[in-house]
Amino acid sequence: MASEILALARPEVPPLPVYNAGLSSAAVRARYGVDRIARLGSNENPYGPSPRVAEALAGLAQQVHWYSDADSQALREALARRSGATPAQIVVGNGSESILHMLCLALLSPGERVLTQRPAFGLHEIYPRMMGAEVELLDLTPALGFDVDAWCAALARGPKIAMLANPSNPVGCLFDTAAFARLLDATPAGTLLVVDEAYVEYARLTPGFPDALPMLRDWGGAWIVLRTFSKAWGLAGLRVGYGIACDAALVQLLDRVRTPFGVNIAAQLAARAALEDEAHMRQSVARTVVQRDGMLQAIEALGLRVAPSATNFLFVDLGRPNGPVNEALLAAGVIVKPWKEPGFTQFLRITVGTDEDNARCLQALRAALAA
Ligand SMILES: *Cc1c(COP(=O)(O)O)cnc(C)c1O
């Protein structure tokens, strides 16, 4: 039976890796018998969203028999006001991952070329492969930064789409303003630049991080900036992300391939409420950035190499296989993300959590390294 099912698949699909979402808290509790879990595996904001979100969601049970607004109009207007774009340039998705999905569905034919880095955010690679595109992966520099020269040279070869996470997930490195300007100069017409700014709210606190929107507007090529409510805004469980596109025509293309009611009522309401309390978001981001710098020093003091990070996570080189260390952390109730890609199986990506979670993580890491 299984082989008959496989024969039904498009040839691109069976070889695709399944997205590595990591272990759930419930699975770790059950498997290791621990009650307290430090969730440091998925770059969530441990401080959660503004209290206004809970207020906005309180009356929701009375509305759930109605479909959501398929155009997310009120949310798009709010996002347009903040970004200086028009609502017609904004696309909202069930997480920004769904916008990556729409872009690949709408733009990629088999054999077309997509450019990204290694290690990458998994979906920057998986969705293009789903369409039969060829994915070129650029290596990091030895100092765990972006290789700007290699990026410029590869962009000049005119891939259909360049997936550029700034800052990078899982590494945390960034293209600064000068590097970003060079990338724009190198990108020919006919290439869509997808600038994934999932961590922009954190990265803005790192000197040199580019203000990409005005630079992209001046540049005048084809681009879309992706952002999300899942990280700094604390709404990962509700799934809502958005894109700001160079032109309404790109949004209209995505409208043809997206699921019409993909952004549910709770997600639309919560995102609007969160936007009304930017101070809450900024506070939690400022706190996390201070904790990140503390964690970086503490992990380096254990003798490990850590990539500089403009985000809410750290990419840590253990100098040994990550499997046993990860097992020891799980047994202590600490969930992080052990990288599985060849070449990076000595790395852990550790999300910055609360002081208590960070302390437990450090203690477990110290014990695991001593074992
Ligand atoms: C977390 C993340 C996203 C996806 O976020 P959604 O939850 O789907 O909005 C997209 N890109 C990068 C680089 C991320 O780290």
TrEMBL record:
Assigned EC number: 2.6.1.9
Catalysed reaction, written as an equation: L-histidinol phosphate + 2-oxoglutarate = 3-(imidazol-4-yl)-2-oxopropyl phosphate + L-glutamate
Pathway, per record: Amino-acid biosynthesis; L-histidine biosynthesis; L-histidine from 5-phospho-alpha-D-ribose 1-diphosphate: step 7/9
InterPro entries named among the record's database cross-references: Aminotrans_II_pyridoxalP_BS, Aminotransferase_I/II_large, HisP_aminotrans, HistidinolP_aminotransfase, PyrdxlP-dep_Trfase, PyrdxlP-dep_Trfase_major, PyrdxlP-dep_Trfase_small
Record carries keyword Metal-binding: no
Gene3D superfamilies cross-referenced by the UniProt entry: Aspartate Aminotransferase, domain 1 (3.90.1150.10), Type I PLP-dependent aspartate aminotransferase-like (Major domain) (3.40.640.10)
Keywords assigned by UniProt, alphabetized: Amino-acid biosynthesis, Aminotransferase, Histidine biosynthesis, Pyridoxal phosphate, Transferase
Required cofactor(s): pyridoxal 5'-phosphate
Pfam families for the chain: Aminotran_1_2 (PF00155)
MF annotations from Gene Ontology: transaminase activity
Residues annotated as domain Aminotransferase class I/classII large: 39-365
EC class name: transferase
Modified residues (N6-(pyridoxal phosphate)lysine): 231
Family of this protein: Belongs to the class-II pyridoxal-phosphate-dependent aminotransferase family. Histidinol-phosphate aminotransferase subfamily.
Complexes and interactors: Homodimer.
Protein name from the UniProt record: Histidinol-phosphate aminotransferase
Organism lineage: Bacteria, Pseudomonadati, Pseudomonadota, Betaproteobacteria, Burkholderiales
